[in-house]
Design a protein that fits this description.
Number of helices of chain B: 5
Number of helices of chain A: 15
Number of strands of chain A: 13
Radius of gyration of chain B: 16 Å
Low-confidence stretches of chain B: 14-23
Low-confidence stretches of chain A: none
Strand order of the largest sheet of chain A: 3-2-1-6-5-4
Strand order of the largest sheet of chain B: 2-6-1-5-3-4
Order of helices and strands of chain B: HEEHEHHEHEE
Mean pLDDT of chain A: 84
Distance between the termini of chain B: 42 Å
Shape of chain A: rod-shaped
Helix content of chain A: 55-70%
Distance between the termini of chain A: 76 Å
Oligomer: heterodimer
Mean pLDDT of chain B: 83
Number of strands of chain B: 6
Order of helices and strands of chain A: HHHHHHHEEHEHEHEEHHEHEEHEEHEE
Structural class of chain A: alpha+beta
Largest sheet of chain B: 6 strands, mixed
Strand content of chain B: 15-25%
Helix content of chain B: 40-55%
Strand content of chain A: 5-15%
Shape of chain B: globular
Chain lengths: 668, 148
């Protein structure tokens, strides 16, 4: 709505004055033109009358000339009179008086003058001829005709003169009757102006007071807190503008208050959600809380949280609400590459705020995936530590225009959910770590206790069999056996403690290496010779399939430790079957493979077995701390190599150590 | 005086005789210029022409009426039978007409011959002459309905 800057009163008066001024001007122009026309008419009539009089006098002179035909100057007098008549008549005809009747009369007179002229000329000619009887008769006849023509002319002129007089009288009469018109018009205009001014003044004042009243009333209402009040705009003037601005101000105030209230509610809800998240120790509980609160806040018909699987190949439903479980079954796990909003958001961190069904449908590469599409959709990624971990989706059974506040809320909710999920995951990991550590402590105490117990038993046995008072002691063979067992148990204890110390050093980053050149095949052979009896005893003899001579720059002791650990594992889990060993030198690397044909490792454990304290699940009867592969992996990686496993349950396992031939410790 | 007092009586009787005679035989005939195509005319039309109430023939030719002098023997009959006015009424009419409409009385020809020659000379003209007029050269007689 546009408002004028000029005051309405001034504007109305100005318009009225301009209109009245124009009206007065036109009126006076009209009166002037009318009077001028009348005066022109009168002037013309007066002139016509004058010339008619002249013509009439000329006719009288003509008559006199004809009557005085016997006189000498008659003809010249006639000519002069005729000229006078013709000139007068022609002048009046040229003036073309307004009345057609007068014009006709003068035209008749003109014709008659010409006829008279002809007859008069005859008369003058005849007069100059001898006065015979016949001649005289002709003259008499012509004189009679001349009289007739004079009569015709006189009739016409007199008739025209009377007509002109009547017209002049009519004009005079009109002028006389209209003598008061200008005064009456002026008075009327003045009166009209006065009444209009009075009315406009009264009307404007009344409207002004009404508008101000409305404004004051609205101000009071707003002061009392009623923001629904609206000031009616009566006129598009300053007051109207003020009223409009007031309405706009109140409207903005109401919107601001509403926004503030909504924002406060959202903050409270987010606080509630945060509190609930902090209580939720399980990712599934976090997922459920997110969708429940989100649905309540956004008034959505459904919502779900999906997270990316560990292998980052699929998207798994973590929690949902508002959907038919039968439908959800199809969506519990979907490929991460599927072109649907939740997967796209999780994979590419896209934000989706689709406000119509058409927009939602457009985000699905294959529309056949859903029988019925939601009417609106909001989908945002879940990001933790700069890594996308999933997506949060809300769907609506009605078209929805997402306000900036709602968008911000969804994004904030996703942020909170991401943090909560990460926290829950960390909690789970911590729980699992605690569980593993407890399990390790249990195993470690068992593993440490076993050789100590054995050592203690050997010592107690020796003590019981040694009786100094009776001078009794075990036989040297028995003692040798006891010492051998004791030393073995001490070695085992030492090995366990070394492993634990190594792990501690790895954790602290304090494990030191002493690099040197050596032949790996030589070391491998020494280890095999050292373990030969043990291997044979466990019915898992080593079979060397290939043994290339390889010069390696590495820490001999640690590489030996790797070989021993792998060989010990092959022996422990080899189920009494031969162990096949290959050492192959390649172009840039050396590859050591130790393959057993034992119980094998399930595929899902392949990644775990290199962790600390990790052991295969079905190895309750096999000793060990679960640190061998962890230590081996750390050592190999410290040499810029890698350790791999190929295993199949009940078929066997093959551990491959790949080390670079040219190793530079500084680049590690 | 006695002789003078008899004059009106004689005149009255003479009037009694003349109309009776004129009802049987019109003493005058109406003549028109040969340009006039009309064959007959009514007394009222003649009266309108005379008093200039109608100035044109049906074909548009202007009408010029040639009257006889008041001394003419034909004039009284014309006044009474055609114009149905007295001589005084006629004078008064033309005085008024001259003053108020500017129209003058028709031209008076001094004799039948002059009437004939004038009517013959001027197209659209009309006049009346004695029914005994011998020479009607250049004119033609027009029948007046109701007067023949």
């Amino acid at each position: 709505v546009s408002f004028t800057q000029t005051s309405s009163i001034v504007r109305r008066f100005r318009t009225l004055t301009v209109l009245l001024g124009l009206f007065v001007l036109l009126e006076f122009v009209g009166i002037f033109v009318s009077s001028q026309t009348s005066l022109d008419g009168l002037r013309k009539l007066n002139r016509a009358n004058t010339f008619t009089e002249l013509a009439a006098r000329g006719i009288a002179n003509l008559d006199s000339a004809i009557e005085a035909i016997d006189k000498k100057q008659a003809e010249s007098v006639y000519d002069l009179a005729e000229k006078e008549v013709i000139t007068s008549v022609n002048t009046v005809i040229e003036m073309h008086p307004a009345s057609p009747k007068v014009y006709g009369m003068f035209t008749d007179a003109q014709k008659s003058v010409l006829e008279l002229d002809k007859v008069a000329k005859d008369i003058f000619i005849l007069r100059q001829q001898p006065s015979t009887r016949e001649n005289l008769a002709l003259i008499s006849k012509d004189l009679l005709l001349a009289k007739q023509f004079e009569l015709d002319i006189n009739d016409s002129l007199r008739g025209a003169q009377i007509e002109l007089t009547q017209i002049a009288n009519r004009i005079f009469n009109d002028l006389y009757q209209g003598r008061w018109t200008p005064i009456a018009i002026s008075f009327g205009i003045a009166l009209l102006f006065f009444v209009a001014a009075l009315w406009i003044g009264f009307y404007t004042t009344k409207r002004l007071s009404i508008s101000l009243g409305h404004l004051l009333k609205a101000t009071d209402e707003v002061a009392r807190g009623n923001l629904k009040i609206k000031v009616p705009i009566l006129d598009h003037d300053e007051i109207g503008r003020l009223s409009s601005a007031f309405d706009e101000m109140v409207k903005n105030l109401e919107v601001s208050l509403k926004k503030e209230k909504t924002a406060a509610e959202r903050v409270f809800r987010l606080q509630d959600i945060t509190a609930e998240f902090s209580r939720a120790l399980d990712p599934a509980a976090v997922g459920s809380a997110v969708v429940l609160h989100g649905n309540a806040e956004l008034e959505s018909s459904g919502g779900f949280v999906a997270i990316i699987s560990d292998d980052r190949e699929s998207l798994e439903m973590l929690g949902f609400a508002g959907y038919d479980p039968a439908i959800i079954d199809d969506w519990k796990q979907i490929p991460i590459t599927l072109k649907v909003p939740s997967a796209l958001s999780a994979l590419h961190r896209n934000l989706f705020f689709c406000e119509t069904e058409a927009e939602v449908r457009a985000q699905f590469e294959n529309p056949a995936l859903l029988a019925e599409f939601p009417k609106a959709l909001a989908c945002v990624p879940l990001v933790a530590n700069e890594t996308s971990i999933g997506s949060l989706t809300f769907t609506f059974d009605h078209e929805k225009r997402f306000s900036s506040e709602e968008r911000d809320f969804v994004i904030a909710l996703a942020d909170l959910a991401s943090q909560a999920l990460q926290r829950a995951q960390l909690y789970n990991d911590a729980q699992e770590a605690i569980q593993v550590r407890e399990e390790f402590l249990s195993i470690a105490s068992h593993e440490l206790k076993t050789p100590i117990t054995s050592l203690k038993m050997q010592l107690q046995l020796a003590q019981m069999q040694t009786k100094p008072a009776e001078n009794l002691a075990p036989s040297p063979q028995k003692l040798a056996r006891m010492f051998e067992v004791s030393v073995n148990q001490v070695n085992r204890l030492t090995s366990l403690v070394d492993d634990l110390l190594d792990v501690s050093r790895f954790e602290a980053g304090k494990l030191s290496f002493h690099f040197a050149f050596f032949d790996l095949s030589t070391i491998l052979k020494e280890v095999l010779e050292r373990f030969e009896s043990v291997l044979n005893h466990s019915h898992s003899p080593a079979e060397i399939l290939q043994m290339d001579s390889v010069q390696l720059y590495a820490d001999v002791f640690r590489i030996e430790q790797v070989i021993v650990n792998l060989l010990s594992n092959a022996m422990k889990y080899g189920a009494g079957k031969p162990i096949q060993i290959t050492l192959v030198k390649k172009e840039t690397t050396v590859e050591l493979s130790i393959r057993d044909h034992g119980i094998g490792i399930p595929a899902d454990k392949h990644a775990l077995i290199f962790g600390r304290f990790e052991r295969a699940a079905n190895t309750q009867n096999i000793g060990g701390l679960g640190l061998g592969l962890y230590i081996a992996k750390q050592i190999v990686e410290a040499h810029q190599g890698e350790i791999l496993v190929e295993s199949e349950p009940n078929v066997g396992s093959c551990f491959k150590v790949i080390l670079p031939l040219k190793f530079s410790p500084g680049a590690a | 005086l006695k002789r003078l007092g008899r004059i009106p009586i004689i005149f009255f009787f003479s009037l009694m005789i003349v109309p009776a005679h004129s009802q049987e035989h019109s003493p005058l005939i109406f003549i028109v210029n040969p340009s006039v195509t009309q064959k007959e005319i009514s007394a009222q039309e003649i009266s309108d022409f005379y008093f200039k109430k109608n100035r044109y023939w049906p074909d548009g030719t202007k009408v010029r009426f040639f009257d006889q002098a008041s001394t003419s023997s034909l004039k009284p009959w014309f006044l009474q039978k055609v114009l149905k006015k007295t001589s005084r009424e006629l004078d008064l009419f033309w005085i008024g007409e001259k003053n108020y409409n500017g129209q003058g009385a028709p031209i008076i020809a001094p004799s039948d011959e002059m009437v004939v020659s004038s009517v013959a000379s001027l197209p659209g003209s009309i006049g009346y002459v004695s029914s005994d007029a011998d020479d009607l050269t250049g004119v033609k007689k027009i029948i007046v309905k109701g007067l023949e």
